[in-house]
């Protein structure tokens, strides 16, 4: 049997063994897996049995909230197995949880703490005089949780009621300094909260499953807008204009996604080479076999596949061998530091070298000034995008935009 399960530990006790005594410092709660225990108050000479707890019961849980000493003694009445839940482990789990979950748990803990019906294992549960032991539910945590909850609630309606918009950021072919295409970046124009960034609502959509409807909308919108954008691209000899759309992991793992994209291309009479799909490392590594199959199908159709945010994930480089990428996108965090950090500079240099050797095109993101665009061009980067050229813009605005000579 395992003694360690996901950070929780098993403890085995013989008959009469003590779990903890009055006065011990409390740093764990216990769940009885098998056997039973007695909870004793009073002195060692004249113990008073408060309760007998059996399989499934929890005791000592106030230790998860407070660093107060135990005010009861607990002993095994027979051979007993306990699952020990350390406060430190619970705090770590809580710290990693979504803000909404953190907030709800803290509310529950607070309510539990203030309630009078406390468990027998914590005869100590009476508050020590003068202590205020309500956990801190900070205003920040509260505000973040309320915002997330209301966004999650409103997102579903947003998709069906024209609140999503696809902005476009121009992508420049660096050697010829010409407009080669656009990246489509989704925005949510919330009726009361204004424009909401995809960094905020895409993770929410991934968790709630709404990402499939968003992905569907983005693909449709991007392909519908392309006939207006395509004539604006100047291109350069040997290059094909393209619109690049972001897909997240769950979208790519949806059964039939490659066939669906093929049908859409046919319906729109759009050449597959003019569509590029951007994937992040995280999307790739969460389901490598499925993503490999889908990206291969898309490449066979002629659709471009870009590896987004290159260098920021935790994956090794093996997937560059197995996945049929056509493009590497160098993350803006490196680009923006390339003048100040030799580390960033060398990461970019290696990424460009790698893309040349693997016969991939490269895109540098986050170019904000001339010095960076000149440097990146001299290093052989194929394409670039960034505020130096243009921010992402609504369709009508991007149609009016021209690259400064
Ligand atoms: P990303 O795909 O890495 O997109 C690039 C982000 O960098 C965009 O943020 C863009 O506005 C921003 N950016 C571009 N140039 C510059 C620059 O020069 N300086 C700075 N500081 N930032 C620049 P945005 O539009 O807020 O998108 C954030 C992320 O949301 C995207 O990162 C992408 O991962 C995700 N996302 C956006 N649209 C979609 C979508 O349609 N579907 C999915 N699944 N994810 C999307
Ligand atoms: Ca992207
Ligand atoms: Ca990116």
Secondary-structure map:
Layout: E1 4-5, E2 8-13, E3 18-20, E4 28-34, E5 36-42, E6 47-54, E7 58-59, E8 73-76, E9 80-86, H1 87-96, H2 99-114, H3 139-160, E10 164-173, E11 178-190, E12 194-196, H4 198-208, H5 211-229, E13 242-246, H6 249-252, H7 257-268, E14 275-280, H8 281-286, H9 288-301, E15 304-310, H10 319-322, E16 327-330, H11 332-335, H12 342-357, E17 361-364, H13 370-378, E18 383-384, H14 395-400
The structure holds ligand C2E and calcium ion (2 copies).
The site of one calcium ion (CA) has 4 residues, from loops.
Describe the structure.
There is one protein chain. The chain is of the alpha/beta class and 405 residues long. It has two domains: 2-152, Jelly Rolls (Sandwich), CATH 2.60.120.10; 163-399, EAL domain (TIM Barrel). Helices cover 38% and strands 25% of the residues. The chain has 14 helices and 18 strands. It has helices at residues 87-96, 99-114, 139-160, 198-208, 211-229, 249-252, 257-268, 281-286, 288-301, 319-322, 332-335, 342-357, 370-378, 395-400; strands spanning 4-5, 8-13, 18-20, 28-34, 36-42, 47-54, 58-59, 73-76, 80-86, 164-173, 178-190, 194-196, 242-246, 275-280, 304-310, 327-330, 361-364, 383-384. The chain has an eight-stranded mixed barrel with strand order 10-11-13-14-15-16-17-18, surrounded by five helices. A hairpin with a 3-residue loop joins strand 11 (178-190) and strand 12. Helix 2 (99-114) crosses helix 3, helix 3 crosses helix 4 (198-208) and helix 7 (257-268) runs parallel beside helix 9 (288-301). The longest helix has 22 residues, at 139-160. The protein is elongated. Bound molecules: ligand C2E and calcium ion (2 copies). One calcium ion is lined by residues 308-309, 329, 331, 365.
């Amino acid at each position: 049997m395992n003694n360690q399960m996901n950070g929780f530990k098993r403890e085995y006790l013989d008959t009469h063994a003590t779990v903890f005594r009055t006065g011990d410092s409390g740093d764990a709660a216990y769940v009885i897996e098998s056997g039973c225990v007695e909870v004793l108050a009073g002195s060692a000479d004249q113990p008073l049995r408060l309760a007998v707890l059996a399989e499934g019961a929890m005791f000592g849980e106030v230790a998860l909230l407070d660093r107060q000493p135990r005010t009861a003694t607990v002993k095994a009445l027979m051979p007993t197995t306990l699952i020990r839940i350390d406060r430190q482990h619970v705090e770590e789990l809580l710290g990693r949880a979504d803000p909404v979950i953190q907030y709800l748990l803290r509310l529950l803990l607070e309510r539990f703490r203030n309630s009078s019906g406390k468990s027998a294992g914590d005869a100590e549960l009476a508050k020590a005089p003068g202590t205020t032991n309500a956990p801190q539910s900070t205003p920040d945590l509260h505000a973040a949780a309320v915002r997330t909850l209301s966004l999650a609630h409103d997102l579903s309606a947003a998709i069906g009621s024209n609140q999503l918009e696809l902005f476009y950021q121009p992508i420049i072919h660096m050697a010829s300094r010409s407009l080669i295409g656009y990246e489509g970046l989704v925005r949510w124009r919330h009726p009361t909260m204004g424009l909401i960034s995809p960094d905020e609502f895409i993770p929410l959509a991934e968790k709630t499953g709404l990402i499939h409807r968003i992905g569907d909308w983005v693909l449709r919108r991007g392909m519908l807008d392309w006939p207006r954008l395509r004539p604006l691209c100047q291109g350069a000899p040997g290059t094909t204009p393209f619109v690049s759309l972001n897909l997240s992991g769950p979208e790519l793992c949806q059964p039939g996604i490659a066939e669906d994209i093929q049908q859409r291309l046919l319906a729109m009479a759009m050449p597959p080479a003019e569509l590029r799909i951007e994937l992040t490392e995280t999307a790739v590594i969460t389901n490598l076999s499925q993503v490999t199959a889908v990206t291969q199908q898309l490449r066979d159709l002629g659709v471009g596949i870009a590896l987004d945010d290159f260098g920021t994930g935790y994956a090794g480089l093996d997937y560059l061998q197995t996945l049929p990428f056509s493009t590497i996108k160098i993350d803006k965090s490196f680009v923006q530091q390339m003048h100040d950090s030799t580390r960033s500079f060398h990461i970019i240099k290696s990424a460009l070298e790698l893309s040349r050797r693997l016969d991939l095109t490269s895109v540098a993101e986050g170019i904000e000034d001339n010095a960076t665009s000149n440097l990146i061009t001299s290093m052989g980067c194929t394409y670039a995008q960034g505020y130096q050229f243009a921010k992402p813009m609504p369709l009508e605005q991007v149609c009016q935009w021209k690259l400064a000579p």
